[in-house]
Design a protein that fits this description.
This protein is mainly alpha-helical and 204 residues long. It is built from 9 helices and 4 strands.
């Protein structure tokens, strides 16, 4: 675990050794539970642990789904954006049924949105048809600063905190936190309906 220099933000970066993890996990006992067991030792130290998954449904992603409380699905507003989404949702259901009964769909976040293109508008409309109650209000725009930030090794908030991209991600963070607080209040009151909670925050 690396301290990033940004207050209250720690990081576990991927290394080249992770490339062979899929092969090693194939023969491991309780292979789907490895990440969950590792996080048990530290999870009480953090308010949020975000697991960034590869764009595949291999054992690494399966470990992440088994360890997680909820899933946030980013969808680019581009052609083929919905390709593979059905398989992902089916995998989430299977993990929920057999490995992690607490796993829920946190929501869908639309990214790389360009209101000047018909394609972006069409993707948004299509996603809303499928996830009417699970789409975050905040939409991440296509933004030059967002594209530049990784090449400088900085998060967008440090690279250009006033850019449209930075503002959008701050708004998304606020939305995620507020929805989590609402869920905690509902759990404390003995009632928790995922659909109702997402209705409050908007449309992942």
């Amino acid at each position: 675990i690396i301290e990033t220099g940004i207050e209250n933000l720690s990081l576990v970066p991927a290394t080249i050794e992770l490339a062979g993890a899929e092969v090693e996990l194939v023969t491991a006992i309780a292979r789907e539970q490895k990440l969950k067991k590792a996080l048990q030792e530290i999870k009480e130290l953090y308010d949020y642990i975000i697991i960034d998954c590869p764009p595949s449904l291999g054992l690494l992603t399966l470990n992440a789904l088994t360890a997680a409380d909820s899933v946030l699905i980013p969808i680019q507003c581009e052609y083929y954006a919905l390709e593979g989404l059905g398989q992902l949702l089916n995998t989430i259901k299977l993990v929920n049924r057999h490995l992690n009964p607490r796993l829920e769909l946190e929501g869908v976040v639309l990214t790389m949105y360009d209101p000047r293109t018909n394609l972006s508008i069409q993707v948004v409309d299509e996603v809303k048809k499928h996830f009417s109650h699970n789409i975050f209000k905040t939409i991440i725009p296509r933004n030059v600063r967002l594209s530049e930030a990784p090449s400088f090794g900085k998060p967008i908030g440090a690279y250009d905190s006033r850019s449209r991209g930075a503002e959008a991600y701050r708004e998304l963070a606020r939305e995620v936190i507020l929805s989590g607080e609402e869920e905690s209040r509902q759990r404390a009151g003995g009632i928790i309906t995922r659909k109702g909670r997402r209705n409050q925050t908007g449309e992942h």
